[in-house]
Structures are given as C-alpha cells and as structure tokens.
Write a structure and sequence with these properties.
mainly beta; four-stranded mixed beta sheet; four-stranded antiparallel beta sheet; 16 strands
Length: 228
Amino acid sequence: MTLRATIVAFLIMSSVAALHAQEALYGKQPPRGSAFVRLVNATPAAAVVTTDFQAETRLGAAGADRVAPYAVVERAAERSLTFAAKEGGHEGHFTYKAAADGYVTIVMEQSPAGTITFTPIVDQAEFNQTRARLAFYNAALGCASATLGLDPSGPAVFQDVATGATKSRTVNPVQATVRASCAGQPGPTLALGGMDLGASYSIWLMQPDGKPILFMTPDVSAKYKPRS
C-alpha cells in the first residue's frame, strides 16, 4: 500500500471512529433534511394529540406539562404532517408542512367556537455556548401584542410580540423577575433562575381559561430513533 493510500485509509477509519464516538455520546443523529417539531397545549385542560410522525402524545394543563419535547420528523420536505387533538369534548385537526432542518412549535388553543385550533410558530434555533438562549412565546389568544420586561419597572426584554409569534435573544444567566404585559396592561410575573450557559429556554404566555399565566421550560429534544 502506498503512503497516500495509507493516509486515506487512516482518515476514513478516523472519521468512522469519530462518528461512532459521537453516536455513543449523543445517540443516533437525525439525517439532514429532518425537521424538529414540538407540541404545546394552551387549552384549558389536558389534551391528547395524535400525529403521523410520533406516538400518541398526552399534554397536561399545568406549567411544563403543557410542552412536549421536540420530535424528529425525517424527510420533512417530502411530506405533510397531520395532527388530531382531543381536549374534553373538544376536537381539532390540522395539516402542516414543516421546513427541512428547521424547528417549529405547534400551539393548540381552544377557539371561541369550542374547537381546537393549531398555530405553527417557526423557531429561531440560534445557540451560543457562552450565553443562554431565551425565547418568549405569545400563546394567548386575547393578547394581540405582548411585552416581557424586568419587574417592577425595568427595561423590556421582549417587546411587541404578536399573538402566535415568538422573539428570542441570548442572555447571561441571571436571577431576575420578569412581568408580562398585554397592550400595556400588567400581567403575571415569573422568577428566572437555574439557567445554564449554552442551554435554551422558552417563556410562555398563555390564557387557557381567560386568565393569563406565565412559565418557563427548558428546550429539549426527544431521543432520536431511526425508522426501521
């Protein structure tokens, strides 16, 4: 074997070894072209969601129980995703085409007519290992424009977030209290804490039963299991 062939063989073996090491540490990695989709329950009660890309999902009606991990959707550009939700006596159906290599949050809410509606929110998945990423989601049907600011009278962290939208930024992990407001009217407060450098978090403003609530969850992904 020539010297060049030996070097090429060594590089190939090194790449394979690195790939196996990565899989051992992080698990199987999704193929390129996958989308990352998570479900969020902003209805008044617990909900059951059936999709064509993961097992039946049950979402609670209290804090973090409302938010599912991101699920991997392979070959996202080649398919349309279907959703069917039940909450009490209410139902809803939805079809959506997610962008390949993108992140999207599907928020379920109960409409004034009593049906379950689905709002897709495209997420900005920027990450910074030296800071924490913080996103603010306005999932309150009755709030056309939401603001999140430091309490009691500090500057705004996020301004003018429309219903069914999100804004994000990187921050230094701090101990602070924030307050949400809607159209200038003060709403609930939330104590921030426990954030880690390099991690990502979401703050949710919801109004499931007419009264606004505010809570934070870490952004996590379900373990990827390749289709057999």
